[in-house]
Amino acid sequence: MNYENILVTAEGAIAEVTINRPSKLNALNVATIQELHHAFNTLELNPEIRAIILTGSGEKAFVAGADIAEFAHFSVEEGAHLASSGQELLFDFVEKLKTPVIAAVNGFALGGGLELAMACHFRVASDNAKMGLPEVSLGVIPGYGGTQRLPQLIGKGRAMEMIMTAGMMSAEDAYRLGLANHVVPQAELIDYCKGIAQKIIKNSPTAISQAIKAVNAGFKDGVNGYETEIKCFGKCFGTEDFKEGTTAFLEKRKAEFSGK
Question: Which phi and psi (to 5°) does residue 229 adopt?
């Protein structure tokens, strides 16, 4: 598929997805959400890809928000559909991917941009990054999971303040509060993320996918995370990766995981 709004490249087992709308500060519109869904789904189905880095083009923005012009005149029903379809196609979809997704937050991550970064499995920020959910300043609230994921990451009180004030957070504050795992100079951001990805791809893809499922379960209402962990743990015993990993350990050699 030829994309108009994103770029997809791969180097070995690591793929890089770049939102490429620099004139709009990489703002998310419906077309971009659909392209991202297609790209992530394609990469997920490729057994050669074991880690994905998501970033924005240029030096100013990861994603500066949703494309407001696209929904400024929506009705109640259209607004609800926009949120539900976006969550299903992209935000929840990314969170549930079996392949780890690292958000390389370069610059502004506002509104839907921060929501997308939070849907990734973890975040690395450039030192000039600014993060926020300014939706209430437009008379609306975050609709792509922001009211749920932000409290999970930084706590209810801080999330309430951030959403109600429509304020922005610096990269250092994001790191201090646990919203970002690391803060690095912008010029080093992608290479730093690739370094983390290199550590990830040395491990069992099947085990990592089960770990993602188990961790996510602990944040879902009505789901017992401990029971999910037990089931995921058990499933690992039926994989070739488990046999290879334990055999390699006993033979005192490095494991070569097939992802099966």
Answer: -60, -45
pLDDT in tens, 236-252: 999 999 999 999 999 99
Mean residue pLDDT across the chain: 96
The model carries a pTM of 0.95
Catalytic residue positions, numbered? 115, 135
Q: Determine contact, residues 90/36, Cβ cutoff 8 Å.
A: yes
Beta strand 130-132 with 168-170: parallel, antiparallel or unpaired?
antiparallel
Parallel/antiparallel/unpaired status of strands 61-63 and 108-110: parallel
Q: Buried b / exposed e across 100-130, counting CB within 10 Å, b at 16+?
A: bbbbbbbbbbbbbbbbbbbbbbbbbbbebbb
Place of tokens 């290879």: 244
Phi-psi region of 42 (alpha: psi -120 to 50; beta: other; left: phi over 0): alpha
- Taking the CB of residue 46, how many other CB atoms lie within 10 A of it? 13
CA 149 from centroid of its chain's CA atoms: 11
What is the rounded average pLDDT of the residues 44-68? 94
Domain ranges of the chain: 6-200, 205-250
Side chain identity at residue 19, one-letter code: I
**Is residue 14 within 8 Å of 53, Cβ to Cβ?**
yes
Check whether domain 6-200 has CATH 3.90.226.10, yes or no: yes
